[in-house]
Amino acid sequence: MPIAISSHPNSVAADATANSENNVMFCQGTGLSPALLARARSLATEHSTYSAHLADAFDTKIARRVGELAPIARIIKEWDKANESISELNSLLDDPDTDTELRSLAIEDLASSKSALSNISESLKLALVPRHPFATLPCLLEIRPGAGGDEAGLFAFEILKMYTAFCSRRGLRSSVIKLEAVDGPAEDRLSEAVIEVDADGAYDLLRSESGVHRVQRVPATEAKGRTHTSAVSVMVLPNFPETGGGMDVSLNVDDPNNDYYVDPQEVRSEKMRAGGAGGQHVNKTESAIRLTHVPTGIVVSMQDSRSQHANRKKAWQILRARLAEQRQEAREREKMELRRGALGGVARMGRGDKVRTYNYGQNRCTDHRSGVTVHNLDDVVDGGEGLDTIMDSVRAWLIDREVSVMAAEELATDSSKQ
């Protein structure tokens, strides 16, 4: 069945006003504001300055900065080249002495140059958006039922299968490292699950899945055919390597000076007997582990393995991930508060916000951030290309939102200087 897609515009910031007539002319239709273009030029100049400095004396920090700015400097050159081509072609078309054959060729080249400029603009936006500090890491996906009783537990299990199928189709190595079901007649009512996606960059690929996923459908147990609404919470957490060898020092969680380091002295560890299914051996052995991070009150329990050592290792893995995500979210909130003063308010969606609706009666899945709807629900929940479409739309929405905010910041900075 083909996937039908619809969308509506979703803007988070007012369009920036132009700083120069030249920039206005070339920014129209590219989705790139003059203020943002000015920012890119400033960064390209910084790249040139630092590159000259490196020619005289090598410095590790400066070399890293030059590497970060190199894509922007390269794309700005492409931007200027495309603009120069468009300007020359327009001049040719404005000249009444241009013959018919040359005019026809100029029209074709102009369309091609404008298309190239649009693509260059998208590349520049991507280069300008700061990379998330966890972008290169693997990740953990935590899935929990929310409001909706048994139906929420059933849908949580389907969400688990959706992500495992997605990872399998995309060739991402994944495994369920924690799986707890609700006691009762149905074995597929999920209480909590954690999927480990062991692939570099998995966090950046999946981080937009965090939030509340809402389902609207008639439960199998509903005798009167009424539609019920329930919810599932999804959290995407960074998964840090076990050692810091050969990795970015900023992500070495074994370093006490690292922002994401967890002091073992602040963690209370308790041994317990495993509960639930698992046989006599599981219930008679204190193999389950519960870790409590005392300063924040975050609790992680693990009993999936018969090995206490294995449970402790997984519990620490999840605890570090939760704390790192919490600290990063705190930084992002602080950053947003600083932006509010200059921009008059900046919207931010958190993990508790409703991000997506799966409506079975209408055979649709709608993302409430990008506004995109896919009219093939089975393909989405099977982890198919429909899910790709939605995830791609959200990543594009995140980039557009950040670009809009950066453009507004540039305008605010320019206004304060006048």
Automatic annotation (TrEMBL):
Domain Prokaryotic-type class I peptide chain release factors: 273-289
Pfam families referenced in this protein's UniProt entry, alphabetically: PCRF, RF-1
PROSITE patterns: RF_PROK_I (PS00745)
Keyword Protein biosynthesis: yes
GO CC annotation terms, alphabetical: mitochondrion
InterPro entries documented for this protein: PCRF (IPR005139), Pep_chain_release_fac_I (IPR000352), Pep_chain_release_fac_I_sf (IPR045853), Prokaryotic/Mito_RF (IPR050057)
BP term (GO), one: mitochondrial translation
Keyword tRNA processing: no
Keywords: Methylation, Protein biosynthesis
A GO term for molecular function: translation release factor activity
Family to which the UniProt record says this protein belongs: Belongs to the prokaryotic/mitochondrial release factor family.
Protein name per its UniProtKB record: Prokaryotic-type class I peptide chain release factors domain-containing protein
Organism: Aspergillus tanneri
